[in-house]
């Protein structure tokens, strides 16, 4: 299991845009404070729970065979699963301009806990695609 300090640093590095790490740290602190106020438990545990719910277990790789491109499901390692989950969670909220980034992230985390999130839909869609393309497993090399 990865330490909580590593998780927070990984999230801050993912939130950093254009070299403004201080802004990412401030967003992360505000997000952790919002989670602490709402749930009254350690916010790092909440982040672990949320990331565990949206971690994909497979990803699709493209292979070309006889002029056709096949999408082949590939099982991914836990470190890559965590990286993809963080990317999905935090990069979806940069496009939303309704509120501040902290509130967008907070609403997304609440949506994941309540099972009504875009990240969960994305994961389910990926797993359905992997299930339907399972017949192409013999093309991987």
Summarize the structure.
60% of the residues lie in helices and 11% in strands. The chain is mainly alpha-helical and 141 residues long.
Describe this structure in words.
This protein is mostly helical and 141 residues long. It has a single domain, classed as Orthogonal Bundle (Ribosomal Protein S7), CATH 1.10.455.10. It has six helices and two strands, in the order αααββααα. The chain has helices spanning 4-15, 21-39, 43-54, 78-91, 101-113, 118-132; strands spanning 58-65, 68-75. A two-stranded antiparallel sheet has the order 1-2. β1 and β2 form a beta hairpin. α1 (4-15) crosses α4. The longest helix has 19 residues, at 21-39. It is elongated. Belongs to the universal ribosomal protein uS7 family. Keywords: Mitochondrion, Ribonucleoprotein, Ribosomal protein. Residues 7-134 form the Small ribosomal subunit protein uS7 domain. It comes from Cyanophora paradoxa. This is Ribosomal protein S7.
Write the layout of secondary structure elements.
Layout: H1 4-15, H2 21-39, H3 43-54, E1 58-65, E2 68-75, H4 78-91, H5 101-113, H6 118-132
Antiparallel strand pairs: 1-2
Helix pairs in contact: 1-2, 1-4, 2-5
Order of adjacent strands in the largest pleated sheet: 1-2
User: Main β-sheet: number of strands, strand sense, barrel status?
Assistant: 2 strands, antiparallel
Number of domains: 1
Helix content: 55-70%
Shape: elongated
Number of helices: 6
Distance between the termini: 30 Å
Instruction: Give the H and E element order.
Output: HHHEEHHH
Rg measurement, Å: 17 Å
Uncertain ranges: none
Shape-level CATH architecture: Orthogonal Bundle
Look up the CATH topology: Ribosomal Protein S7
Number of separate strands = 2
CATH superfamily: Ribosomal protein S7/S5
Q: Find the structural class using helix and strand composition.
A: mainly alpha
What percent strand? 5-15%
Class, according to the CATH hierarchy? Mainly Alpha
**Average predicted local confidence, pLDDT:** 88
């Amino acid at each position: 299991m990865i330490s909580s300090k590593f998780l927070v640093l990984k999230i801050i590095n993912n939130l950093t845009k254009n070299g403004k790490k201080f802004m990412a740290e401030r967003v992360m602190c505000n997000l952790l404070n919002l989670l602490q106020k709402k749930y009254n438990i350690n916010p790092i545990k909440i982040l672990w729970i949320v990331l565990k719910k949206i971690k994909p277990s497979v990803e699709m790789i493209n292979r070309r065979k006889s002029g056709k491109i096949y999408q082949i499901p590939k099982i991914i390692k836990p470190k890559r699963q965590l990286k993809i989950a963080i990317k999905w969670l935090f990069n979806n909220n940069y496009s939303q301009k309704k509120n501040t980034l902290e509130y967008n992230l907070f609403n997304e985390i609440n949506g994941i806990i309540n099972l009504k999130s875009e990240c969960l839909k994305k994961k389910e869609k990926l797993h359905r695609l992997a299930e339907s393309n399972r017949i192409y497993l013999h093309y991987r090399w």
